[in-house]
Amino acid sequence: MADPPQGVTPLIVERSFVARSTPAELWDVITDTEVLNRAAGLGRLSVEPLQDEGAARFLIRTKLGGFNVEYEEFPFEWVRPKRFAVRRRMRNGPVHELAMAFLLDALPGGGTGVRLRLILHPRVGLMRPVLRISAQSSLGDIEKQIQRTDEALGRAANGMPPPSTVSHADERALGRAASELAATTSKELVERLADVVRSSTDFDLSRIRAYELADRWKLPRRAVLEACLAAVRSGLFELRWELICPSCRTAAASMTSLSELAGHGRCQLCDLAFGLDLDESVELVFSPASSIREIDRGPYCIGGPARTPHVLSQMVLPANASGDIEAPGDLGATRLFVRGGDMMRLDIEAGAPPTLKLDAFAGAWPRRAKIAPAGVVTVDNTGHPERHVKIEQSDGQHFGTPARDVTLLPAFRRDFSTDLLRRDLALKVARVALLFTDLTGSTALYAREGDARAFRVVLDHFDVLREVIERCGGVIIKTIGDAVMATFSSDLDAVRASWAALHAFETFRAGDEARAETRLKLGVFSGPCYVVTANGILDYFGQTVNMAARLQGEARSGEIVLVEALGKEAVRAGAFPGDAVSEAEKVSLKGIDEHVSIVRVSAVVRTCAERRFKPI
Description:
This protein is 29% helix and 32% strand. It has 616 residues and is an alpha+beta fold. Helix 4 packs antiparallel against helix 5 (187-199).
């Protein structure tokens, strides 16, 4: 794009006023530009990615004041909760470029000094008077909106009340779906989910996150997630999967089925390609079924601090120059990121240097650096076009529902069994706990009791295990002959399930001669795995799976075998009593290069001599 016309000075219009709320209180509301733009009646945006090397990542088309406009949207710039600004390079209309800034200054006696600044670059100098009037009017409207926000914050104990909705629910269709949902879900959750569909804004409904609802309602996350999945079956919700950028944590893409996933994703905003896993990069979200409420998904804004609340500071580096970005004032671990460049851990520590200087594209940065609170990081961008740089929290609260958790739910595997990965795709999960079981004595049982009777015993024992495993938070992945493979999100849940299974199986054996001829042996192990589609199900493979199977193979009838470290952790957590655990021993497992230190757990209390017991 061409530079601003020569000889035409920028037009700067400012407005100042005082708000009673603190900068932090105002920040979360006035930086939610998607909601504010909807409330102001601005037009919906058409978004097209830009592929050049400049800082602007998107071309926007919309309507302003009844006119079709087209502009390049630059990344927002901000320092939380002090200031934020947006810059747009217009491709048509009377203005070549505009920049809007919001500055929040904490006042000594309380409240906030708010300054609004609008900078316009007219294409023609003769337009200045008209543009000034328009700019003053726009800033006046923004001031009124912020003043209303300030008053509402003063009245509402829990912050701003939501703006009025745009669309409305079909109450008859909503009632039918809620009635069907009530057959499998508690009345409380049915009413809560129905109220979400009925009263939330279109924007909030475009991306319902089960864990966010659970935390807001102070209910178990798993229970709310299961209710949302049940709401899909009843016709209240629709689901989709989103690819989450590891830097900005926004949705880089969305799809309706896991089968649409590839092995990688790409974030246009961050100019970042990333590999996919089921722990962090793939999330499940919901929205109302279109037959119940047809919502306006927008977008009305594509940037802003509210979209990326974990980003503390962000700026656009000038081309062929240096830029300064302010570090947070609070102590803690953050991360510094330059689009198209490198990233590093940045520790905010008292007594650390107040400044830090880096070359944006010098190659690999050091893994970490330190800076004082509110220090300044200078980033050299010599020889490169504009890019944005940001400081973001490396850790924080996450409301997303990772695909890993979803695929470990029995309800998902039962009711969404056709939602599978591509056959040629394997996605990693960082950690999963595996439980393998085997039924001993079954071969002799078939010989003595016949196929029909023996097979009935095998099927009945599957039912016992399924009830115990699901009650302990796991899911059966598959059965192999008379063996079971189950997964859990927690190591201790898997251990508790194995202990409960041993006891439940003793009850199962009692009072039946055929069942009494069988015993159970189990192995538990956890670690990273890959998830694949195999034989029509989501299955797991990798060395962790092999290890869990080998531990189960090492068990004797009526025993659980697990590695020594997990055994110690389980005893400390009270998952089973210490006197049920044998002394650790070294064993050689097939396919495992090194000897493994294991313990054996038995529900049958033995003497110390029999157990060779040493407290762990």
